[in-house]
Design a protein that fits this description.
Glutamine Phosphoribosylpyrophosphate, subunit 1, domain 1; 7-stranded antiparallel β-sheet; 31% helix; binds adenosine monophosphate; 17 helices
């Protein structure tokens, strides 16, 4: 997961980066950081916490410069150290660099071991640190060639921003698993960010997506930007970006995330017709899809559950007991509209089954007669290795149980998942997607 942003040639680089990270807070809440270049030195601040907690006016004043890279981190269990926050910064033969990364490198352990064998010292658990080492120990004369050399060694899903004093490199892996878009700021500068919702907030104009396999180079000494197609593109955008991660107001590969989610809901209504009185979403993740379901089926839509927005995401809590409590803190039912009703509940996914089980209990306690759970993604059967924090096979309920067993476990009157085919149709059949969580096809070898 995670969010990255790069700003180049803008008077207010750190402020624009700050607002962009704020717009992308949903992609990671564990830690955040910004590195800024004023052409002479790189200044950086990174800390655990939300964007608004880490940066204040003094911080933004300190981060003066016309290029910036920023990052929001979504922690996976274990590595919660601030050393695992980004940007990662280093001084090396050619000067200073800061790197931010969204994705996951699949050969990180081999590369890291080889670097350690050759004498490298690591400060963090992050695969991103490999990239800094590869750049630092290259014998190429120019940073650009060092970056290219490193990219030929790393493998996996990555969107990378590499900042030096005078340049900024924006790179997307050849599969384009994670999104990355390019835009222009009102003051003529450029912005590269994980999601286009950041552009809307900072008033940037969308130019285009960074192409899979492309490296864009911004250089203080040159106008505009240079595009280098480093690898043959074989696009496979992560379907989960559309299902869950991305904000509904973002556009990925020319497709509105909101509209795609509505399509998923509509497809669900066609695939699984249910005799019910109300369609309600699990807020906020199921809202767009539930609207689609309601439109297509003609069953009235209601916000039958209210969400308390001041609780972090339930997923990150380490123990099952604490996760259960957090769902309760987060979601509460509106008894008046639920009592005696047959209800279709729409959510985007089931991972461990905690949310669905709890919601069904809440709805039944509120007097619902029947609860039909509609999940607008296929069954998650495999952990994603390309940058999503899905747990191991042991924790994935879809890997351990059949649909009927899950239905029994969450105590639903019925349980339906979207088929892989309908998922592809809903996003658009004009391209291929990364569907590893559903089909186990780990295509990056
Ligand atoms: P669970 O309760 O473990 O079954 O998780 C499913 C809930 O978590 C759904 O409401 C999803 O919207 C949400 N979800 C799915 N994937 C993720 C993820 N990688 N991180 C955080 N939340 C997620």
């Amino acid at each position: 997961m995670c969010a990255i942003v790069g700003i180049f040639n803008s008077k207010e680089a750190s402020r624009v980066a700050y607002y962009s990270l704020f717009a992308m807070q949903h992609r990671g809440q564990e830690a955040t950081g910004i590195s800024v270049s004023n052409g002479e030195i790189l200044r950086k601040i990174k800390k655990k916490g939300l964007v608004t907690e880490v940066f204040d006016e003094d911080a933004l004043k300190y981060l003066k410069g016309n290029s910036a890279v920023g990052h929001n981190r979504y922690s996976t269990a274990g590595s919660k150290s601030v050393l695992d926050a980004q940007p990662i910064h280093a001084s090396y033969k050619l000067g200073e660099i800061s790197v931010v990364h969204n994705g996951n490198l699949i050969n990180k352990d081999e590369v890291r071991q080889q670097l350690i064998d050759e004498g490298a010292i690591f400060q963090s658990q992050m695969d991103t640190e490999n990239i800094i080492h590869l750049i630092a120990r290259s014998h190429e004369e120019h940073l650009r060639d060092r970056v290219i050399e490193a990219l030929n060694i790393i493998k996996g899903a990555y969107c990378l921003l590499i900042q030096s004093r005078h340049k900024l490199f924006a790179i997307r892996d050849k599969y384009g698993v994670r999104p990355l878009s390019l835009g222009q700021l009102e003051d003529g500068g450029y912005i590269v960010s994980s999601e286009t919702c950041a552009f809307d907030l900072v008033g940037a104009k969308f130019i285009r997506d960074v192409r899979p396999g492309e490296m864009i180079v911004f250089d203080n000494e040159k106008k505009g930007y240079e595009s280098i197609q480093l690898f043959e593109p074989t696009p496979r955008i992560c379907a989960f970006e559309f299902i869950y991660f991305a904000r509904p107001d973002s556009v990925i590969a020319g497709k509105s995330v909101y509209v795609v989610r509505q399509e998923m809901g509509k497809a669900m209504a066609r695939e699984h017709k249910i005799d019910a009185d109300l369609v309600i979403p699990v807020p906020d993740s199921g809202v767009s899809a539930a609207m689609g379901y309601a439109h297509e089926s003609g069953i009235p839509f209601e916000m039958g559950i209210v969400r308390n927005h001041y609780v972090g995401r339930t997923f990150i809590e380490p123990t099952q007991a604490r996760r259960d409590m957090k769902v309760k803190l987060k979601l509460s039912p509106i008894n008046a509209i639920l009592k005696g009703k047959k209800i279709v509940v729409v959510d985007d996914s089931i991972v461990r089954g905690t949310t669905s089980k709890r919601i069904i209990r809440i709805l039944k306690e509120a007097g619902a007669k029947e609860v039909h759970m509609c999940i607008t993604s296929p069954v998650i059967k495999h952990p994603c290795k390309y940058g999503i924090d899905t747990p191991s096979y042991e924790e994935l309920i879809g890997a351990k149980m059949s649909v009927e067993e899950i239905r029994e476990y969450i105590k639903a009157d019925s349980l339906s998942f979207l088929s892989i085919n309908s998922l592809k149709k809903s996003i658009g059949e004009d391209m291929e997607y990364s569907l590893v969580s559903f089909d186990g096809n780990y295509f990056i070898k």
